[in-house]
Amino acid sequence: MEQQQHLFVCILLAFCLTSSTNGGKVLVWYTEASHWINMKHVLETLVDRGHAVTVLMLFMDNKDSKFKYETFNVSFPLEEIEKFLEDYLHFSMYEMDQLSYLQIYIRHIELAKMDLYYNLKYLDGIIKSEFMMKKLKDENFDVLLADPIYPGSDLVADILGIPLVFTLRFSLVNNWERHCGQRPAPPSYVPGAMSKLTEKMDFSERVWNFGFYLLNDLMYQHFFWKDIDKYYSDVKGTPTSGCEMMGKADFWLIRTYWDFDSPHPILPNFKYVGGIHCKPAKPLPKHIEEFVQGSGEHGVIVFTFGSMINNITREKANMIASALAQIPQKVLWKYKGETPETLGANTRLYDWIPQNDLLGHPKTRAFVTHGGTNGIYEAIYHGVPMVGIPMFADQPSNIIQLKARGAALILNLNFMTTEDFRDALTIVINDKSYKENAMQLSRIHHDRPMSPRDEAIFWIEYTMRNKGAKHLRVQAHELTWFQYHSLDVLVFLLSIVLLITLLFIKACSLCFRRCCGSKRKTKRE
Amino acid sequence: MEQQQHLFVCILLAFCLTSSTNGGKVLVWYTEASHWINMKHVLETLVDRGHAVTVLMLFMDNKDSKFKYETFNVSFPLEEIEKFLEDYLHFSMYEMDQLSYLQIYIRHIELAKMDLYYNLKYLDGIIKSEFMMKKLKDENFDVLLADPIYPGSDLVADILGIPLVFTLRFSLVNNWERHCGQRPAPPSYVPGAMSKLTEKMDFSERVWNFGFYLLNDLMYQHFFWKDIDKYYSDVKGTPTSGCEMMGKADFWLIRTYWDFDSPHPILPNFKYVGGIHCKPAKPLPKHIEEFVQGSGEHGVIVFTFGSMINNITREKANMIASALAQIPQKVLWKYKGETPETLGANTRLYDWIPQNDLLGHPKTRAFVTHGGTNGIYEAIYHGVPMVGIPMFADQPSNIIQLKARGAALILNLNFMTTEDFRDALTIVINDKSYKENAMQLSRIHHDRPMSPRDEAIFWIEYTMRNKGAKHLRVQAHELTWFQYHSLDVLVFLLSIVLLITLLFIKACSLCFRRCCGSKRKTKRE
């Protein structure tokens, strides 16, 4: 029966590669790092299918001839944001583990405020530039495709009067999906994004998840939406809710799937396209293939901390290299830092590795990862077990989900020892259950009616040809939270019950008085 | 851009028709009337794809060589159930409009109790027959496909130890989907099935919907689940919840889609396959084609009350025929009753009509329907506007949804006059907006990644090759209602807040007393 499934995938791929389109015009919201790596694959397919893709960019550092770029200016030196990003990474990687929950929460609020400050400065570069907005308006785009990690795409889509499609990994505690997208997420079984929980929660975990939702919703309300609402209202010249603007999106393309995400309620305009960027492995460059083949029966380990983290402290690098030196596998480590003194002969450092091609190589035994969703999906696609050393954002939760599914082990960079790392690698490679579980996730990943990229393309083109998809939006968007939870109905029904009870008591007491009154009267007579 | 969509559909159809499978063994739960008409199309495709299909049947009246049938015995004369069905139809068609809401509710409870009584008698025929259960066990089926309208399929799937796929139009107030399937449905914007509401509700309608959920949930609890639980517990020999059993289903194939259903929250194992039975029109039989062509530019009207209602009272039939005689269109009316005296020359009565082929004919201007989902979907598929004269079950709600989308008008058989009917037909045919809206629903219906039948087949085969789909079930199935709504967490957190407040008050009062005490002491000194 697996044959038919593969035939299906082949036909769909063939469809994607060969069918012609009446090309549409796609405007792409600016984004960067892993978000851009992910999105680029979808954009390339859109171009291959005859659409014109215009990308808004902060600055032109990786011009790709397939797309047209529109750059915009920001009113502050970009070094400032680089410094902010470094601070954020340092806090997440080294400081957070030393702090109490309260301190982490307060620091997160500070960071969120700074992040929003810079994001709105970026947005100024587009929305407050008459020249840019006129240029975009004149282009008559058919759709705006945006990763909402940088706010403002909804406002621009609204001003341009074009449909909007989001592509999104997650928002903290799913705040955007729940409050703006109206996707239900009961805290009793839907772990908040970044909560480090899985869907299987005991009582104390449910208390933690509930509190996590509550605290972060409060944070969003006071340190995000308030400023966004003010900004949007200023631009529109009328009171405008940023969350309502976000809720106008025609589609939400969520970059997970039920291979590793917890099953949860969804909506007709939420599509799950996790692994959107994955593809079969290509042959390796000759020198890498030779190194990989030299590993013999032991095979190789692929190791990366992703696109944002290029080096770690000397001490940590030595601790890691020392563990790697103790295992029989060969290791390909993407690492731009200083070569550690303890580096073994079996380990090679690379500025860049063909990660997907390596993960799809039959000699690959394990993947050491920071837990970014892109890398995880490549490992799931090829069925490779993992050792996760997560750093920030969704990475800890990602690895915890994989651990719960028996396809990964998790380590903490600040507390792990050489022995911990060596043992984790040994277990993940030698305990067959990890490979089997990774293969099971891979089977779930592949066994769907169409590939995630084809699905994403279908709904983007759907939005273009139907000029939006408002008929898929739930009516909840038109209700207040009070109405949504039927609180007005409950108050009304309880008032009626109360009124009837009062009338009943009053009537009884009247009857009672009349009876007693007449008795007394009779007695007197 | 529409080209590519059609190419897509063609490729998917080609896949369905040509790809080979390692055939599985499908057991089909007994069902009848429109439920069977609908399911048969899926089963035929399953057979065409190499699967062996065995159908449980009450009795063998329409043996089809494509499937294997297993008949079972029931311990009461089948005339009894026919009489019950007649009573139910008479009540729904003629009596209900004369009664108060309370009377309708009480009568519904009586009917539901009778229905369950007969349904459990049917179930006896399978589950209490050692011979039948052994036969089914020995067959080693790969999946049980069931329309849960007749209860017990979940229990049998559990005993046989095989996966279960439901195919379902609706349950009253979505009780099964919500309570057993864990699909969220806030009453503030999800109209209860059979509530005669759309998703756009004003305050009074939300009150009605809330009350409708509440009353019918109570009815289910006391006049359905209590008996089902008792029956299941007796069979299993241990306390067993029928609703939990239902919740074990691997997939719920819901027979609607967002063309006419209200968008609402769904779950990863709920798939919306409305129009599962629809297909392009075939040429008409010669005598019908000649009659249709004779209609000239005015075109024809297709008229049916569905598979269950073959005639109506003489008075009603005359009133209807008289209206039809006044319009310029020709009419094909599926009607087995006595020929009405007022029948016009433009109207022909038929025992049977090729409904789908007629609805797909370019001369068809309107569809007069009782509002059954099968017929409605054929009209949507071909983009034909409707006049609905609903009778029972989901029919009134179906037509109300279509009316809200501007593709139908609604009439009440008990209160309509000849003029009402004639005018409704004239409006639906001559006001272009009805045709345009019907075509818009048709576009939504067709514009999806794969046809509903292909999607249903995909997930049925998915269940077989993966031996179930438990990884798509939400964790809510493992929670009590108290836990689901985080009430235990709330009680815990409120207790802590209360405790802290009490401790604070106690501490303040102690401090106060000590201060005042020492002052008094000082004063005394």
Automatic annotation (TrEMBL), chains A, B:
<protein>
    <recommendedName>
        <fullName>UDP-glucuronosyltransferase</fullName>
        <ecNumber>2.4.1.17</ecNumber>
    </recommendedName>
</protein>
<feature type="signal peptide">
    <location>
        <begin position="1"/>
        <end position="23"/>
    </location>
</feature>
<comment type="similarity">
    <text>Belongs to the UDP-glycosyltransferase family.</text>
</comment>
<feature type="transmembrane region" description="Helical">
    <location>
        <begin position="489"/>
        <end position="512"/>
    </location>
</feature>
<keyword id="KW-0328">Glycosyltransferase</keyword>
<dbReference type="InterPro" id="IPR002213">
    <property type="entry name" value="UDP_glucos_trans"/>
</dbReference>
<keyword id="KW-0808">Transferase</keyword>
<keyword id="KW-0812">Transmembrane</keyword>
<dbReference type="InterPro" id="IPR035595">
    <property type="entry name" value="UDP_glycos_trans_CS"/>
</dbReference>
<keyword id="KW-0472">Membrane</keyword>
<dbReference type="GO" id="GO:0015020">
    <property type="term" value="F:glucuronosyltransferase activity"/>
</dbReference>
<keyword id="KW-0732">Signal</keyword>
<dbReference type="GO" id="GO:0016020">
    <property type="term" value="C:membrane"/>
</dbReference>
<dbReference type="Pfam" id="PF00201">
    <property type="entry name" value="UDPGT"/>
</dbReference>
<dbReference type="InterPro" id="IPR050271">
    <property type="entry name" value="UDP-glycosyltransferase"/>
</dbReference>
<keyword id="KW-1133">Transmembrane helix</keyword>
